[in-house]
Design goal:
Number of strands: 11
Largest sheet: 7 strands, mixed
Radius of gyration: 13 Å
Helix content: under 10%
Shape: globular
Number of helices: 0
Strand content: over 45%
Structural class: mainly beta
Length: 127
């Protein structure tokens, strides 16, 4: 069974850091672009970041650029989202999602185009 599982969420103070992980089971991430999305209470799910299957290209939402870093370790079948200088508005459930990327060129991850989704991990930024 193909599954994605997020971990690493929690409660952090403004200005703090968290590292989220997205681990795949039942398939290899080698041929998948991975996107991170988040959903704040009462808001729509929005794209945060995306990385191509071979990790050569990345993309970030304007609201997180310079603070978040996406990376991947295909040997360990895991993608990461390093989040620094966290703000209260970063609060939400964070999801990872995968879409096929055999050419290593998909650095944009539209929500509707993702094939597999994890169940999410909650990030709360509050003092």
């Amino acid at each position: 069974q193909l599954q994605l599982a997020e971990s690493g969420g929690g409660l952090v103070q403004p200005g703090g850091s968290l590292r989220l992980s997205c681990a795949a089971s039942g398939f290899t991430l080698d041929y998948y672009a991975i996107g991170w999305f988040r959903q704040a209470p009462g808001k729509e799910r929005e794209g945060v970041s995306c990385i191509t299957s071979i990790g050569e290209s990345t993309n970030y939402a304007a609201s997180v650029k310079g603070r978040f870093t996406i990376s991947r370790d295909n040997a360990n079948n895991t993608v990461y989202l390093e989040m620094n200088s966290l703000k209260p508005e970063d609060t939400g459930v964070y999801y990872c999602a995968a879409r096929t990327d055999y050419t290593g060129t998909y650095s944009h991850c539209p929500r509707a185009g993702m094939h597999y989704w994890g169940k999410g991990t909650l990030v709360t930024v509050s003092s």
